[in-house]
Specification:
Largest sheet: 3 strands, antiparallel
Radius of gyration: 19 Å
Structural class: alpha+beta
Helix content: 25-40%
Distance between the termini: 44 Å
Strand content: 5-15%
Length: 142
């Protein structure tokens, strides 16, 4: 398998994706992301961002569409998990300091470390996980 074999096919990917160094380097659609059923009533769910600076905007910024493959009823739950991504990213970045998690330390993966953090950061991480794991029957739609 090649280093840039992203899908396991044995073929080199056309572009190598490199991870950003910090969360500040991440360029994605700003939060909050919300979930709504596709207006065509086809069982699909959309992850969107309504631009708060333009309250008269009729169309949201589309981030993702989730389909209910094989009628498993997972489209809404998948959309809600995707919509929680910005909150998860922010919470984990606040919880895990970059210098501690740097690859240059050469420590084994099973090395125990103490992390100086606050209960507020731990609560934010737990809240983000709770949002990501929320049942498809709960949560908000626009």
């Amino acid at each position: 398998m090649q280093d840039n074999d992203i899908d396991g096919s044995g073929k080199a990917a056309s572009a190598v994706v490199t991870a950003p160094q910090t969360v500040a380097d991440v360029q994605h659609t700003p939060a909050p992301w919300t979930v709504q059923p596709d207006p065509r009533d086809n069982g699909e769910w959309e992850v969107v961002q309504w631009d708060a600076t333009k309250p008269t905007l009729d169309e949201p910024w589309y981030i993702a569409a989730c389909f209910d493959n094989a009628n498993r009823g997972t489209a809404e739950a998948n959309a809600r998990l995707i919509a929680a991504a910005p909150m998860l990213l922010e919470a984990l970045d606040a919880l895990l300091p970059s210098p501690l998690c740097g690859e240059s330390w050469g420590l084994p993966d099973d090395e125990t470390v103490q992390i100086a953090t606050t209960f507020g950061k731990l609560r934010a991480a737990r809240a983000a996980l709770r949002v990501a794991a929320t049942s498809a029957r709960q949560g908000e739609t626009r």
